[in-house]
User: What shape does this take?
Amino acid sequence: MIRKFTQNGYYIVLDIDSGAVHLADKIMYDMLDFFSDNCVPEFEQIENKMNTYEKCEIKECYDEILQLISEKSLFTTTDYEQYTDKLKTSPVKAMCLHIAHDCNLKCEYCFASKGNFGGTPMLMSYDIGRKAIDFIIENSHNRKNIEIDFFGGEPLMNFNVVKQIVEYARSREEEHGKLFRFTITTNGLLLTDDKIEYINKEMSNVVLSIDGRKEINDRLRTKKNGKGCYDDIVPKYLKLIKNRTTDYYVRGTFTKYNLDFSEDVFHLNDLGFEQISVEPVVSDKRLDYSINESDLPAIFEEYETLTKRLSEHRKAGKRHLNFFHFMIDLDHGSCAIKRIKGCGCGNEYVAVTPEGDIYPCHQFVGMDEWKMGTVDSGITRQDIRESFQNTNIYTKKGCRDCWAKFWCSGGCNANNYQYEGDVLTPHKLSCELQKKRLECAIALAADR
Assistant: This one.
Protein backbone atom coordinates (compact mmCIF):
# COMPACT_ATOMS: atom_id res chain seq x y z
CA MET A 1 0.00 0.00 0.00
CA ILE A 2 1.20 3.50 -0.78
CA ARG A 3 -0.03 6.97 0.06
CA LYS A 4 0.43 9.79 -2.45
CA PHE A 5 -0.03 13.45 -1.59
CA THR A 6 1.25 16.89 -2.51
CA GLN A 7 2.53 19.35 0.08
CA ASN A 8 4.79 22.41 -0.03
CA GLY A 9 5.28 21.93 -3.77
CA TYR A 10 6.50 18.34 -3.39
CA TYR A 11 5.02 15.18 -4.89
CA ILE A 12 5.35 12.75 -1.98
CA VAL A 13 4.91 8.99 -2.00
CA LEU A 14 4.86 7.06 1.27
CA ASP A 15 5.28 3.28 1.22
CA ILE A 16 3.10 2.24 4.15
CA ASP A 17 4.68 -1.02 5.30
CA SER A 18 8.35 -0.11 4.90
CA GLY A 19 7.96 3.53 5.92
CA ALA A 20 10.04 4.63 2.92
CA VAL A 21 9.33 8.17 1.71
CA HIS A 22 9.97 9.17 -1.91
CA LEU A 23 10.07 12.64 -3.40
CA ALA A 24 8.69 11.96 -6.86
CA ASP A 25 8.52 14.00 -10.01
CA LYS A 26 5.20 14.55 -11.76
CA ILE A 27 5.58 11.62 -14.16
CA MET A 28 6.27 9.11 -11.39
CA TYR A 29 3.45 10.55 -9.29
CA ASP A 30 1.04 10.04 -12.20
CA MET A 31 2.40 6.65 -13.25
CA LEU A 32 1.96 5.13 -9.79
CA ASP A 33 -1.81 5.33 -10.28
CA PHE A 34 -1.51 2.28 -12.53
CA PHE A 35 0.40 0.16 -9.99
CA SER A 36 -0.87 -1.56 -6.87
CA ASP A 37 0.21 -4.15 -4.32
CA ASN A 38 -1.03 -6.91 -6.60
CA CYS A 39 -0.51 -5.36 -10.02
CA VAL A 40 2.67 -4.46 -11.90
CA PRO A 41 1.49 -3.52 -15.41
CA GLU A 42 3.49 -4.23 -18.54
CA PHE A 43 5.39 -1.31 -20.04
CA GLU A 44 3.14 -1.29 -23.12
CA GLN A 45 0.09 -0.73 -20.92
CA ILE A 46 1.78 2.16 -19.17
CA GLU A 47 3.00 3.68 -22.42
CA ASN A 48 -0.52 3.78 -23.83
CA LYS A 49 -1.91 5.45 -20.72
CA MET A 50 0.92 7.98 -20.31
CA ASN A 51 1.03 9.25 -23.90
CA THR A 52 1.29 12.89 -22.83
CA TYR A 53 4.93 12.16 -21.91
CA GLU A 54 7.84 11.23 -24.17
CA LYS A 55 8.46 7.50 -24.59
CA CYS A 56 12.02 7.74 -23.21
CA GLU A 57 10.72 9.53 -20.09
CA ILE A 58 8.05 6.88 -19.59
CA LYS A 59 10.56 4.03 -19.91
CA GLU A 60 13.05 5.64 -17.53
CA CYS A 61 10.37 6.24 -14.91
CA TYR A 62 8.86 2.76 -15.36
CA ASP A 63 12.28 1.15 -14.80
CA GLU A 64 12.86 3.31 -11.71
CA ILE A 65 9.57 2.16 -10.18
CA LEU A 66 10.44 -1.48 -10.86
CA GLN A 67 13.79 -0.93 -9.19
CA LEU A 68 12.18 0.56 -6.09
CA ILE A 69 9.75 -2.37 -5.93
CA SER A 70 12.65 -4.84 -6.15
CA GLU A 71 14.42 -2.94 -3.35
CA LYS A 72 11.28 -3.29 -1.21
CA SER A 73 10.69 0.41 -0.82
CA LEU A 74 7.48 0.56 -2.90
CA PHE A 75 4.37 -1.63 -2.55
CA THR A 76 6.02 -3.52 0.28
CA THR A 77 3.93 -6.08 2.11
CA THR A 78 4.97 -6.90 5.65
CA ASP A 79 3.10 -9.36 7.84
CA TYR A 80 3.25 -7.41 11.08
CA GLU A 81 0.11 -9.20 12.23
CA GLN A 82 2.25 -12.23 13.02
CA TYR A 83 3.75 -10.26 15.91
CA THR A 84 0.40 -9.95 17.67
CA ASP A 85 1.02 -13.45 19.06
CA LYS A 86 3.98 -11.97 20.92
CA LEU A 87 1.93 -9.22 22.58
CA LYS A 88 2.03 -10.29 26.20
CA THR A 89 1.37 -8.35 29.38
CA SER A 90 4.49 -6.32 29.95
CA PRO A 91 6.39 -5.18 33.01
CA VAL A 92 5.32 -1.72 34.14
CA LYS A 93 7.95 0.82 33.12
CA ALA A 94 6.09 4.14 33.47
CA MET A 95 3.69 5.61 36.00
CA CYS A 96 1.65 8.78 36.11
CA LEU A 97 1.39 9.87 39.75
CA HIS A 98 -1.68 12.02 40.33
CA ILE A 99 0.01 13.98 43.06
CA ALA A 100 -2.91 16.44 43.24
CA HIS A 101 -6.57 16.09 42.37
CA ASP A 102 -6.95 19.81 42.82
CA CYS A 103 -6.01 22.84 40.77
CA ASN A 104 -5.66 26.60 41.15
CA LEU A 105 -6.85 27.10 37.57
CA LYS A 106 -10.30 26.37 36.23
CA CYS A 107 -9.61 25.77 32.54
CA GLU A 108 -12.88 25.35 30.66
CA TYR A 109 -11.67 22.49 28.44
CA CYS A 110 -9.92 20.48 31.17
CA PHE A 111 -10.47 16.74 30.63
CA ALA A 112 -9.92 16.27 34.39
CA SER A 113 -13.09 18.16 35.37
CA LYS A 114 -11.02 21.28 36.19
CA GLY A 115 -8.58 19.31 38.28
CA ASN A 116 -10.46 16.94 40.57
CA PHE A 117 -11.30 14.22 38.01
CA GLY A 118 -14.97 14.36 38.96
CA GLY A 119 -14.37 13.63 42.65
CA THR A 120 -13.44 15.40 45.86
CA PRO A 121 -10.34 17.62 45.68
CA MET A 122 -7.48 15.67 47.25
CA LEU A 123 -3.69 15.63 47.54
CA MET A 124 -1.61 12.46 47.48
CA SER A 125 0.06 11.56 50.79
CA TYR A 126 3.69 10.56 51.02
CA ASP A 127 2.57 7.12 52.20
CA ILE A 128 0.62 6.51 48.98
CA GLY A 129 3.48 7.87 46.92
CA ARG A 130 5.96 5.58 48.65
CA LYS A 131 3.73 2.57 48.04
CA ALA A 132 3.44 3.57 44.37
CA ILE A 133 7.24 3.57 44.06
CA ASP A 134 7.38 0.15 45.73
CA PHE A 135 4.69 -1.09 43.34
CA ILE A 136 6.56 -0.05 40.20
CA ILE A 137 9.88 -1.40 41.49
CA GLU A 138 8.25 -4.78 42.04
CA ASN A 139 6.23 -4.77 38.80
CA SER A 140 8.97 -3.44 36.52
CA HIS A 141 10.76 -6.79 36.92
CA ASN A 142 14.05 -6.69 35.00
CA ARG A 143 13.56 -3.24 33.49
CA LYS A 144 16.21 -0.81 34.66
CA ASN A 145 14.80 2.53 33.49
CA ILE A 146 11.58 3.73 35.11
CA GLU A 147 9.57 6.82 34.21
CA ILE A 148 7.56 8.74 36.82
CA ASP A 149 5.37 11.68 35.79
CA PHE A 150 4.04 14.00 38.49
CA PHE A 151 0.62 15.05 37.27
CA GLY A 152 -2.55 16.76 38.41
CA GLY A 153 -4.57 18.89 38.80
CA GLU A 154 -1.60 21.02 39.71
CA PRO A 155 1.40 19.11 41.14
CA LEU A 156 2.98 22.22 42.66
CA MET A 157 0.09 22.34 45.15
CA ASN A 158 1.69 19.26 46.71
CA PHE A 159 5.34 19.95 46.01
CA ASN A 160 6.73 18.83 49.36
CA VAL A 161 5.35 15.35 48.72
CA VAL A 162 6.84 15.44 45.20
CA LYS A 163 10.26 16.00 46.76
CA GLN A 164 9.72 13.25 49.36
CA ILE A 165 8.76 10.74 46.65
CA VAL A 166 11.79 11.65 44.52
CA GLU A 167 14.08 11.23 47.53
CA TYR A 168 12.54 7.86 48.40
CA ALA A 169 12.80 6.58 44.81
CA ARG A 170 16.44 7.66 44.59
CA SER A 171 17.16 5.86 47.87
CA ARG A 172 15.99 2.57 46.33
CA GLU A 173 17.70 2.79 42.94
CA GLU A 174 20.99 1.10 43.75
CA GLU A 175 19.44 -1.66 45.84
CA HIS A 176 17.09 -2.72 43.03
CA GLY A 177 19.20 -1.84 40.00
CA LYS A 178 16.78 0.86 38.83
CA LEU A 179 17.20 4.32 37.36
CA PHE A 180 14.29 6.73 37.83
CA ARG A 181 13.54 9.50 35.37
CA PHE A 182 11.08 12.11 36.63
CA THR A 183 8.89 14.57 34.75
CA ILE A 184 6.40 17.15 35.98
CA THR A 185 3.52 19.02 34.33
CA THR A 186 2.61 22.42 35.73
CA ASN A 187 0.46 25.47 35.05
CA GLY A 188 3.22 27.63 36.50
CA LEU A 189 1.27 29.76 38.97
CA LEU A 190 3.11 28.43 42.04
CA LEU A 191 6.60 28.42 40.54
CA THR A 192 9.22 30.07 42.75
CA ASP A 193 12.97 30.33 42.45
CA ASP A 194 13.39 27.39 44.84
CA LYS A 195 10.94 25.22 42.90
CA ILE A 196 12.58 26.14 39.60
CA GLU A 197 16.00 25.17 40.96
CA TYR A 198 14.67 21.84 42.21
CA ILE A 199 12.80 21.04 38.99
CA ASN A 200 15.84 21.81 36.87
CA LYS A 201 17.95 19.55 39.07
CA GLU A 202 15.62 16.53 39.42
CA MET A 203 13.13 16.56 36.54
CA SER A 204 14.39 15.12 33.24
CA ASN A 205 11.46 16.75 31.49
CA VAL A 206 8.99 19.45 32.39
CA VAL A 207 5.74 20.34 30.63
CA LEU A 208 4.69 23.98 30.93
CA SER A 209 1.03 24.66 30.16
CA ILE A 210 0.18 27.78 28.15
CA ASP A 211 -2.10 28.20 25.15
CA GLY A 212 -0.26 30.94 23.27
CA ARG A 213 -1.21 34.58 22.81
CA LYS A 214 -2.43 36.38 25.93
CA GLU A 215 -5.98 36.83 24.67
CA ILE A 216 -6.19 33.15 23.66
CA ASN A 217 -4.62 31.78 26.84
CA ASP A 218 -6.69 33.97 29.16
CA ARG A 219 -10.01 33.17 27.53
CA LEU A 220 -10.16 29.59 28.85
CA ARG A 221 -7.21 29.25 31.26
CA THR A 222 -8.55 31.27 34.19
CA LYS A 223 -7.82 31.45 37.89
CA LYS A 224 -10.56 30.95 40.46
CA ASN A 225 -11.24 34.70 40.44
CA GLY A 226 -11.98 34.53 36.72
CA LYS A 227 -8.82 36.33 35.63
CA GLY A 228 -6.36 34.90 33.14
CA CYS A 229 -2.93 33.56 34.07
CA TYR A 230 -0.71 34.66 31.13
CA ASP A 231 1.01 37.57 32.88
CA ASP A 232 1.70 35.42 35.95
CA ILE A 233 3.28 32.45 34.22
CA VAL A 234 5.28 33.75 31.27
CA PRO A 235 8.09 35.36 33.34
CA LYS A 236 8.33 32.23 35.51
CA TYR A 237 8.51 29.91 32.52
CA LEU A 238 11.22 31.99 30.91
CA LYS A 239 13.22 31.93 34.13
CA LEU A 240 12.83 28.13 34.33
CA ILE A 241 14.07 27.43 30.80
CA LYS A 242 16.89 29.99 30.94
CA ASN A 243 19.22 27.66 32.85
CA ARG A 244 17.60 24.37 31.93
CA THR A 245 19.94 21.78 30.41
CA THR A 246 17.45 18.92 29.91
CA ASP A 247 14.13 18.55 28.12
CA TYR A 248 11.10 20.78 28.42
CA TYR A 249 8.23 21.86 26.25
CA VAL A 250 5.41 24.36 26.45
CA ARG A 251 2.11 22.67 25.81
CA GLY A 252 -0.99 24.47 24.59
CA THR A 253 -4.48 23.55 23.44
CA PHE A 254 -6.23 25.09 20.46
CA THR A 255 -10.02 25.22 20.25
CA LYS A 256 -12.63 26.59 17.87
CA TYR A 257 -11.70 30.03 19.26
CA ASN A 258 -8.20 29.97 17.73
CA LEU A 259 -8.17 28.01 14.51
CA ASP A 260 -5.31 30.32 13.52
CA PHE A 261 -3.16 28.44 16.03
CA SER A 262 0.04 28.87 14.00
CA GLU A 263 -0.01 32.42 15.40
CA ASP A 264 0.16 30.94 18.90
CA VAL A 265 3.05 28.66 17.95
CA PHE A 266 5.11 31.57 16.66
CA HIS A 267 4.06 33.83 19.51
CA LEU A 268 5.48 31.30 21.96
CA ASN A 269 8.68 31.07 19.92
CA ASP A 270 8.98 34.87 19.88
CA LEU A 271 8.78 34.82 23.67
CA GLY A 272 11.83 32.54 23.76
CA PHE A 273 10.43 29.00 23.81
CA GLU A 274 11.92 26.51 21.35
CA GLN A 275 10.10 23.25 22.25
CA ILE A 276 6.42 23.81 21.53
CA SER A 277 3.26 21.71 21.39
CA VAL A 278 -0.14 23.18 20.55
CA GLU A 279 -2.68 20.38 20.32
CA PRO A 280 -6.37 20.20 19.36
CA VAL A 281 -8.93 20.09 22.13
CA VAL A 282 -10.70 16.74 22.47
CA SER A 283 -14.09 17.36 24.03
CA ASP A 284 -17.84 16.97 23.79
CA LYS A 285 -18.78 18.30 20.35
CA ARG A 286 -21.76 20.15 21.83
CA LEU A 287 -19.55 22.60 23.73
CA ASP A 288 -19.00 26.04 22.21
CA TYR A 289 -15.21 25.75 22.02
CA SER A 290 -15.16 22.19 20.66
CA ILE A 291 -13.72 21.26 17.30
CA ASN A 292 -16.13 19.50 14.95
CA GLU A 293 -15.84 17.89 11.54
CA SER A 294 -17.01 21.12 9.93
CA ASP A 295 -13.81 22.75 11.24
CA LEU A 296 -11.49 20.24 9.56
CA PRO A 297 -10.93 22.16 6.29
CA ALA A 298 -9.84 25.26 8.22
CA ILE A 299 -7.61 23.23 10.52
CA PHE A 300 -6.01 21.37 7.60
CA GLU A 301 -5.30 24.69 5.92
CA GLU A 302 -3.77 26.01 9.15
CA TYR A 303 -1.52 22.94 9.50
CA GLU A 304 -0.33 23.59 5.94
CA THR A 305 0.27 27.24 6.80
CA LEU A 306 2.24 26.18 9.87
CA THR A 307 4.32 23.79 7.75
CA LYS A 308 5.25 26.56 5.30
CA ARG A 309 6.01 29.02 8.08
CA LEU A 310 8.23 26.52 9.91
CA SER A 311 10.16 25.83 6.70
CA GLU A 312 10.64 29.55 6.02
CA HIS A 313 11.55 30.15 9.66
CA ARG A 314 14.30 27.55 9.54
CA LYS A 315 15.70 28.69 6.21
CA ALA A 316 15.86 32.26 7.50
CA GLY A 317 18.03 31.08 10.39
CA LYS A 318 15.65 32.34 13.07
CA ARG A 319 15.31 31.02 16.63
CA HIS A 320 15.14 27.22 16.78
CA LEU A 321 11.56 25.94 16.86
CA ASN A 322 10.65 22.31 17.32
CA PHE A 323 6.90 21.69 16.91
CA PHE A 324 6.00 18.55 18.84
CA HIS A 325 3.31 17.24 16.49
CA PHE A 326 5.59 17.48 13.47
CA MET A 327 8.39 15.42 15.03
CA ILE A 328 8.99 12.35 12.87
CA ASP A 329 11.84 9.90 12.45
CA LEU A 330 11.98 8.80 8.81
CA ASP A 331 15.34 7.03 9.18
CA HIS A 332 14.58 4.58 11.97
CA GLY A 333 11.05 4.79 13.36
CA SER A 334 9.49 2.49 15.93
CA CYS A 335 9.92 -1.26 16.35
CA ALA A 336 7.25 -3.61 14.96
CA ILE A 337 5.46 -4.03 18.30
CA LYS A 338 5.29 -0.27 18.84
CA ARG A 339 4.00 0.25 15.31
CA ILE A 340 1.06 -2.09 15.73
CA LYS A 341 0.27 -1.37 19.37
CA GLY A 342 1.42 2.17 20.12
CA CYS A 343 0.38 3.29 23.58
CA GLY A 344 1.33 0.93 26.41
CA CYS A 345 -1.54 1.95 28.68
CA GLY A 346 -2.75 -0.73 31.06
CA ASN A 347 0.46 -2.71 30.58
CA GLU A 348 3.71 -0.77 30.44
CA TYR A 349 2.04 2.39 31.71
CA VAL A 350 -0.40 3.00 34.57
CA ALA A 351 -1.73 5.93 36.58
CA VAL A 352 -2.11 6.14 40.37
CA THR A 353 -4.63 8.43 42.07
CA PRO A 354 -4.21 10.24 45.43
CA GLU A 355 -6.15 7.38 47.07
CA GLY A 356 -3.75 4.82 45.61
CA ASP A 357 -6.10 3.44 42.95
CA ILE A 358 -4.50 2.15 39.75
CA TYR A 359 -5.92 2.95 36.30
CA PRO A 360 -4.68 2.15 32.76
CA CYS A 361 -3.62 5.78 32.17
CA HIS A 362 -4.26 9.31 33.41
CA GLN A 363 -7.26 9.78 31.09
CA PHE A 364 -9.10 6.74 32.42
CA VAL A 365 -8.90 8.01 36.00
CA GLY A 366 -12.35 8.55 37.50
CA MET A 367 -14.00 5.87 35.36
CA ASP A 368 -14.74 3.20 37.97
CA GLU A 369 -15.11 0.43 35.39
CA TRP A 370 -11.42 0.85 34.51
CA LYS A 371 -9.99 0.65 38.04
CA MET A 372 -7.31 -2.07 37.89
CA GLY A 373 -6.37 -2.36 41.57
CA THR A 374 -4.55 -0.38 44.25
CA VAL A 375 -0.98 0.17 45.37
CA ASP A 376 -1.79 -2.07 48.36
CA SER A 377 -3.39 -4.96 46.48
CA GLY A 378 -1.51 -4.61 43.21
CA ILE A 379 -3.29 -5.17 39.90
CA THR A 380 -6.33 -7.36 40.58
CA ARG A 381 -8.19 -6.76 37.29
CA GLN A 382 -5.97 -8.84 35.04
CA ASP A 383 -8.80 -8.87 32.50
CA ILE A 384 -8.20 -5.16 31.90
CA ARG A 385 -4.48 -5.78 31.35
CA GLU A 386 -5.28 -8.60 28.95
CA SER A 387 -7.77 -6.47 27.02
CA PHE A 388 -5.10 -3.83 26.39
CA GLN A 389 -2.61 -6.57 25.58
CA ASN A 390 -4.85 -7.51 22.65
CA THR A 391 -5.58 -3.94 21.56
CA ASN A 392 -3.75 -3.11 18.33
CA ILE A 393 -4.27 -1.92 14.77
CA TYR A 394 -5.55 -5.36 13.74
CA THR A 395 -8.27 -5.39 16.40
CA LYS A 396 -9.31 -1.73 16.09
CA LYS A 397 -12.06 -0.94 13.61
CA GLY A 398 -10.88 0.51 10.33
CA CYS A 399 -7.19 0.62 11.20
CA ARG A 400 -6.09 -2.39 9.18
CA ASP A 401 -6.69 -0.59 5.86
CA CYS A 402 -5.67 2.91 6.97
CA TRP A 403 -2.51 4.36 5.42
CA ALA A 404 -1.50 6.03 8.72
CA LYS A 405 -1.89 2.93 10.89
CA PHE A 406 1.81 2.37 11.62
CA TRP A 407 2.28 5.98 12.69
CA CYS A 408 -0.68 6.49 15.02
CA SER A 409 -1.17 2.84 16.08
CA GLY A 410 -4.92 3.24 16.44
CA GLY A 411 -5.01 6.51 18.37
CA CYS A 412 -5.67 7.23 22.04
CA ASN A 413 -7.52 4.40 23.76
CA ALA A 414 -9.10 6.73 26.32
CA ASN A 415 -10.39 9.15 23.68
CA ASN A 416 -11.77 6.23 21.71
CA TYR A 417 -13.66 5.01 24.75
CA GLN A 418 -14.92 8.39 25.90
CA TYR A 419 -16.07 9.75 22.54
CA GLU A 420 -16.82 6.61 20.52
CA GLY A 421 -17.89 4.36 23.41
CA ASP A 422 -15.34 1.66 22.60
CA VAL A 423 -11.55 1.41 22.96
CA LEU A 424 -11.51 -0.48 19.65
CA THR A 425 -13.33 2.25 17.71
CA PRO A 426 -10.90 5.06 16.82
CA HIS A 427 -12.09 8.59 17.46
CA LYS A 428 -12.85 9.76 13.92
CA LEU A 429 -11.98 13.43 14.39
CA SER A 430 -8.64 12.61 16.02
CA CYS A 431 -7.85 10.22 13.14
CA GLU A 432 -8.38 12.90 10.52
CA LEU A 433 -6.23 15.40 12.40
CA GLN A 434 -3.47 12.87 12.93
CA LYS A 435 -3.34 11.98 9.23
CA LYS A 436 -3.05 15.62 8.23
CA ARG A 437 -0.28 16.23 10.80
CA LEU A 438 1.59 13.22 9.47
CA GLU A 439 1.47 14.53 5.90
CA CYS A 440 2.74 17.91 7.08
CA ALA A 441 5.50 16.33 9.18
CA ILE A 442 6.73 14.29 6.21
CA ALA A 443 6.67 17.34 3.94
CA LEU A 444 8.60 19.37 6.49
CA ALA A 445 11.20 16.61 6.86
CA ALA A 446 11.51 16.43 3.06
CA ASP A 447 12.18 20.14 2.94
CA ARG A 448 15.37 19.95 5.03
